[in-house]
Protein 1
Amino acid sequence: MTRLIVNRIFATVLVLLGVSFVVFAALHFSPGDVARTILGLGATEERVQALRQELGLDRPLFIQFWDWLVALLRGDLGRSISLSVPVSDVISDKIWASLLLMGASFALTVSFGLLFAALSGGHHRSLLDRLITLLMLFLASLPPFSLGIILLIVFGLQLRIFPISGVGAMADDATVYVVAKHLFLPAVTTAVSSLAVVARVTRSAFIDEMGEPYVQAARARGHSEGRIITVETMRNVLPSFVTIAGLQIGFLFSSALFSEIIFNWPGIGLQLYQGILQRDFPVVQGCVLAIAIVFVIGNLLADILAIVLDPRRRG
């Protein structure tokens, strides 16, 4: 098991390195000129070339990437071109809002995903199973940006139940109720697609387990269906559930971009969007790297936990 975990960690490092280079190259090959964007269209060619040289944009791509990678290993993500502050400061200010949003979305995903899967898979081919399956198919096909706009209009503008923008009312001494009220609509918007995926995959695992001989034996011993679903089959479903739920950590963190833009939530996704519009390469690279780190760490933790829960994977 130790060897398997070490291999997973090594693969994680390679993935992060590959993602860093792909993002770095994609940004530098994208249309436009960072120096001219900073100076404006009225700047002379001499000033543009001087700024390109100052920023190191005139050097070969691999040399730029190597210098950035060496600085990254020292904890230096560079300075924001548009904000003129260290990128690490920008990310550290924004990441907590994104982690809060991701945590709330993940809690909704795993709790309701497991609940719907147990109700549906434990009562296979019943009316309840068909209704839940239809609901999950609908939620899985619903674009997050469309859902976010609908929730904002209905519950924010018309019914005025929840705030429609940002976290401006969330002071340091804000109560849990105030925080939850601001967080609810963005969290639901972010969680819906992942909830449907988790429920559908875990439902299949429940259906497979409900046909096993030990379930028939449990029924013969007089165990109730509720006990069979929540106790007998649950322990065997958990590895599959943990794996698919762990894959949603990075997805939720990255897909929160839509929720952050729609609800003006001050997180990494909104900062990434603004950095792209401003062609702020260091900020975009730092934000994408932060998303990639959360993504691969989530997958790594899910793999390790699945190995611990399922002895068959230990090899």
Note: Residues 261 and 310 are 39 Å apart (CA to CA).
Protein 2
Amino acid sequence: MDSSNQHNFIKTKSKGEMPVVGIRVPSWASFTRPIFRGIVDFIRNNEKWQLQTLVDSTNEMAPVLIDENWRGDGLILFRYSPEEAKIFKQYEIPVVNLSAECLGKGFPTVIPNNFEIGKQAAQHMLTLGLKHFSYWGDPSRNYSIERGNAFEQEIHSAGYNCIKVQIEPDHLPWDNRWVKMHERIVKELSRLPKPVGIFAKDDMLGSNIIRICNEVGILVPDEISVMGTNADEVFCQISTPPLSSVAYPGESVGYEAARLLSIMMNGKSIENDHSITIPIKDIIARESTNTFAIEDLVVT
């Protein structure tokens, strides 16, 4: 087997030496916090690690920067640059990737089943008695493409059409990006037949859609039902009405990533393209997909 397609780590630790493991996930996203809990659950039940991650300490603690200059025993990363990947390989630092955007780009991966996310979102929308459906995604993101394709496929299987709205925020200038997003969302909302069910690629977009519906006088969920992905508590609850969402299996992602990293740090070979897909268990149904105000309902 071509060794370039494997991680072969020859570094060994002396008995009792505690590995130093870096964790880098988006600090702005509350849905990633369960990843940390899953990692902690693994090390509590298996082996001790010294964890390093970026925290907001209001400058009371020395900052932790995990980039191409970081040196330790293993990394769990939500995306990385080609330059970082090159350096980590050079220093034989085991890495587990948590992003579909970096799937197959040099390191083993643990990600949620994005196809199942789209499928379950469609199945939930189909229970609402709607005849019009729309998927709002980002064609530059792999996870968005997978979720959208699955959603559209399930909607078509039920005998309905799916209107796709594609927005690429990264192609908009940083300054006043939100203004351009607002203009585009207003334009697309005005084009949709109503009532309609919208499935957004993530909760940030879903929350933004609801906010703008409120501004322009579109009733949610009477005219537009909205659903997101990740069950990010902040984005879901700042929406009025609160946003329904497919839950991100963060604890399972974190646990499996830690388990895989442990195997690698102990010198076992893992294929670079090795991928673990975590099943989707829950939909958190809230008022944005229900005409009646209800308490948060977990649909399993």
Note: The chain has two domains: 3-113+249-278, 114-248+283-299.
Protein 3
Amino acid sequence: KWTEALSSGHSAQMNLLAHGLKRYPMREWALCARGLAGHSKWHNTRHRKARQDSARGALYDRMGKELRTAVISKDEAAIADATAKAKKAGVPKEVIEKAVQRSRDRASLESVTYEGTLGSACFIIETLTEKRTRTAADVRAALKESGGVLGADGCASWAFRRMGLLQYDVPASSGGAEALLEAAMDAGAEDVDEREGDEEAGRERGAGDALRVDVWTETEQLSSIRETISRHGHDPSDEQLVYLPTEALQLDEHSLHSVECALEALEALDDVEEVWHNVAMGTANG
């Protein structure tokens, strides 16, 4: 349709083109206009780089959270451990230093959790703020944009279970996943899931074609289970306390779009650290 609009000069098609130019980068439009195949060298290189950038960004975010947790705890040994772990994972020195400094700047902030709903969808929003009233107003406005509301404690948390999550990346061909699953269950894990890992992230951590193993624990057992599994030679690539939905909510396309808009607005807020929801994304009914 885009190339037809370029050649036809038809007003409706030109309006489509004008609308598209606002939404997509010029390079994308140049590729479409020239009718380049989806398997061009540039296309493959660009998408491979996008995957690499995404994996690298996820790694930096994960390490940043660990550094922030350590700084907030004011435990210098924990800060040193988190710094060493980030270096070992390949995070550049300047990125680590900025993350530590930013965390120190935010260490005096208050952790506040908000709950909201949008129709049947439930949200738990974790924030760090120096001014509760401002953050509450921002969260309320972000939800309201898509038809949601900020509610009282308990209006959304009933739909979740607070759990500990340990994530491990192990080489797919090493048999390590089996040993890890056995160690986790022996340590008292609530559940263990195995799935295909991120190829680029696995290579960055030296795991090659990796399997991702998720180990679920009771919150109070997270540390003890991690230590037990570590004694079997496995260190987690990520560790966090999560809100796990007790049931994944299936929505129609319109409602799903509203939830996606709400998530985008919430995650854009500077004070927001995490947003948890109970919606099955990408699986609209009807």
Note: The chain has three domains: 2-34, 53-106, 110-286.
